[in-house]
Design goal:
Oligomer: single chain
Shape: globular
Number of strands: 18
Largest sheet: 7 strands, antiparallel
Helix content: 25-40%
Radius of gyration: 33 Å
Strand content: 15-25%
Structural class: alpha+beta
Length: 453
Amino acid sequence: MKSEIIKRVFLILLCAVIFGSCTYITDTSEASASIVSFSESSLASVTTAYSVVTEEATTEKTEETTVEETEVPPVEEVSVPLIDITEDAYIKYTYGVGNFKDTEMSKSMLIYDFADELYTGIGYNQTEPSYNEMYEGLCAYIEDKIIFFKAYNYTENAELMNIDSVKLISDADVEELIVSDKYDYSAIDVSEYKNGLYKICMDVSYETSDISYSYCLYFYVNGDEVYLCKCSYEYGGVINKLRKRAALVSEMLEMHNITPENSLDISGMAFPFHSGYGEDAHNHTEDIVAFSKTLVNENWTDGHKVLVFHDWMTANFAYDLYSYEVLDTQRSYHFEEYGEKYCVWCTGVGTCFHFTNIFAIMCRANGIPCVTADNPDHTWNIVYVNGDWIEIDITIDVKRAVYEDMTKIENADEIYSYIGYNIFNNTSDIECINKWLWTIDASYGRNVCTLHS
């Protein structure tokens, strides 16, 4: 009896579905394939339901059980208003579930530094990971909602590095990516991706050691826009960094008219001394220019060149503690000796003034815009790399030091440090730009705050 009732119910449902489908198609002369497909699927679902129910009904002494359907909550899509995201903008979202829940801190992940090109990597001898272009790591750029990514390695071990896996990680899924060649770009079409944060992770190892690394880059989908971005859990640090960058760029452009285009000239530079200091005054600008070109190749990226200049200087110069702590001025000024005896290019001993100018000359000589930032107590560099102005303080990374005897070097083996690489100083302390960048003119390059490089 129960089986007969079920059959009658099924026949009624079947007729209703067929009638509804036929009526719809009859009234619509140009029915789409999707509509027909939907009608067929409806029939199939009802047929399946009938077969299951009749099979259960014919089973003798089957206990009736009620199965409660568990309502699956919809996956919440992380979305943002369509806004104009600039380099100094940031967005904060909560990622408390899924693959981003690595630690409790990940519940407050901060997304910042939206860009079309981004690097991550490690320094010399696999030290100090950074979001900058380093000696090896992962890089990516965006073009027409397609993300191109690849590994890079500027070391002698480039051929020994193996890519073990590449994953695309979202808040809901992990997808294995195929890379045909480790140093050629692979592509991800993100045109259909939902709004939210994604991460590309590349695991690498080396044939000659047990060392392995995981390099990760984030990208953020925001409606029709896609951005590479950086992530952090430190709210205060990121906000301070973004505020300082905004102030830095504003001050460079609005107050000092500094642009990448007018930060390349070296034709008027005389370092460390111009002819106004006497016949024996050493001007090594041309020597520095020529030597810098032996350190790099023309086909290298600007980021690679800047890194090599930085590391050569930290490995070959020593900070003059005697000038800083005792004389309170440069040895050349104190002893009024402007020749070879105290020349930084000859002795390898100097202070922030020397390091900043040498670095600026090297960068400019190789087509990389670079200026000096100055305050009453210090000077450092601001260099234009990968479409962004970054601050580099060579002095912080020069760990080698001398006292009165310039031949006795303390910390002689501490030659690689990246604390000052892309550091953000207190922007409010910048007195002016290029104040200590020497130029030869009618005033013999007096230290004046110039409005141009």
